């Protein structure tokens, strides 16, 4: 039992090593410096899984205010409201024609909030890449441009230019487009997506299960030994008489 206990502890230790390695690898991914969006994938390609949650920089000019949309049913500090999503026309999409990326600028309690007013002019900002949500919102297009989900396949039919297959959740910008602050006209910030878990050290998980299997086998062997010892010490438990088995009566 002592040996099995030690093996069980070793298994837990290996699992802790795996968790530590995974946390370190995930934190390292989150600390990767921001890169230009265009350097990760072109505008005409789908969003690669490796780009999700990456920190990027984008430079361009805000699109016409009429192109701004809102996404409903978004909570912020327990309050229901809207995400404000504005297209940013990029300076360089790597191909001919106008291209843009949809920027989640922040949260407001009402679409009539002055903070939701669409910005104009050039902008340079930093944010995290987010992918489209699964819920279909193609039937939500209306005059107020309010959608129930954040989906590029719906938005591409609402604008007259190409759009990146990704959203940028704004975290920082130049002074002309504040993200958050004490001003009453500032948008409440939206938390960018967390980087995917980097499952480093999977070998340690195998080691943990290996130790636990050894511990289980040790307990099974111990149980067999105890049972055999109990049977050998039982006075009522006698081995069969060979003569009885052959049908011969002893004198």
Task: Jot down its keywords.
alpha/beta; five-stranded mixed beta barrel; transmembrane helix; 4 helices; single chain; about 250 residues; 8 strands; Surf1/Shy1; Surf1/Surf4
In short:
Pfam families: SURF1. This protein is of the alpha/beta class. Helix content is 27%, strand content 25%.
Report the order of strands and helices. HEEEEEEEHEHH
Which radius of gyration do the C-alpha atoms yield?
A: 32 Å
Chain-averaged pLDDT = 80
Terminal CA distance reads 49 Å
How many individual domains?
2
Beta-strand residue fraction: 25-35%
Poorly predicted ranges: 176-184
Tally the helices: what do you get?
4
Shape: elongated
The largest beta-sheet arranges its strands as 2-4-5-8-6
Main beta-sheet annotation: 5 strands, mixed, barrel
What structural category arises from helix and sheet content? alpha/beta
| Portion of residues within helices | 25-40%
Instruction: State the total count of DSSP E strands.
Output: 8
Describe the SSE topology:
Elements: H1 2-30, E1 35-36, E2 55-62, E3 69-76, E4 79-90, E5 99-108, E6 122-130, E7 146-147, H2 152-155, E8 162-173, H3 202-232, H4 242-246
Parallel strand pairs: 1-2, 3-7, 5-8
Antiparallel strand pairs: 2-4, 2-6, 3-4, 4-5, 6-8
Structure report:
Belongs to the SURF1 family. It comes from Kribbella italica. Its main location: membrane. This protein is α/β, with parallel strands linked by helices and 251 residues long. The chain has 2 domains: 1-32 and 197-227, no CATH class; 55-173. It contains 4 helices and 8 strands. The longest helix has 31 residues, at 202-232. The radius of gyration is 32 Å and the shape is elongated.
